[in-house]
Amino acid sequence: MNISVLSTLLAGANGASQRSSMSMIILIVAMFGVMYFVMIRPQKKKQQQEQEMRDSIQVGDEITTIGGIMGRVVTVKEDSLVIETGADRNKMKITRWAVSTNNTAVEKAEAEKAAAKEAAEAEKNKKIEEAAEAGKSKRKKTKKNKDDTFED
């Protein structure tokens, strides 16, 4: 009888350990999923945006290198750029990966944001004025109606 009770207990413990190990595996997979979406995916997205910025550099753009050198692009080649720096127009050849920011593109984006913000503000002010005009005309109509009822 002791053997049957012991075998029953062992069978229950074995099933519990299988469930426990399965839940641990699921937890580890979930942690890797969270790590991917929190750390790896945003980093890849940022690298892709930087590469697109470097590929879109054109002659005449003002850039800043990783080392902090600012200049205007004179020549664009496959893997390198030639930039002019300073008032005496020194020319430097740099690789594309050394470009940190495209100042011309940043300025264009800021100007577009400012223009959109001004347009939205103008639209908002226009709607406020229209609402105020509608309210004034409504008040005039109700005042005329009240005056008409008192005259009768």
Description:
With 152 residues, this protein is of the alpha+beta class. It folds into two domains: 1-55; 56-151, Roll (SH3 type barrels), CATH 2.30.30.60. Helices cover 68% and strands 18% of the residues. The protein has helices spanning 2-55, 103-151, and strands spanning 62-65, 70-76, 80-85, 90-95, 99-102. The chain has a five-stranded antiparallel sheet with strand order 4-3-2-1-5. β2 and β3 form a beta hairpin.
Main features:
5 strands; 152 residues; 2 domains; alpha+beta
Helices, strands, pairings?
Elements: H1 2-55, E1 62-65, E2 70-76, E3 80-85, E4 90-95, E5 99-102, H2 103-151
Antiparallel strand pairs: 1-2, 1-5, 2-3, 3-4
Question: How would you summarize what this structure contains?
Answer:
The chain is an alpha+beta fold and 152 residues long. It contains 2 helices and 5 strands; from the N terminus they run H-E-E-E-E-E-H. The chain has 2 domains: 1-55; 56-151, SH3 type barrels.
Report the helical percentage: 55-70%
| Gross CATH architecture of the largest domain | Roll
* Secondary structure: number of strands: 5
CATH class of the largest domain: Mainly Beta
Which secondary-structure class do the elements indicate? Answer: alpha+beta
Tally of individual domains: 2
Number of helices: 2
Unreliable stretches covering 5 or more consecutive residues: none
Main sheet strand line-up: 4-3-2-1-5
SSE order, one letter for each helix or strand: HEEEEEH
What integer is the average pLDDT? Answer: 84
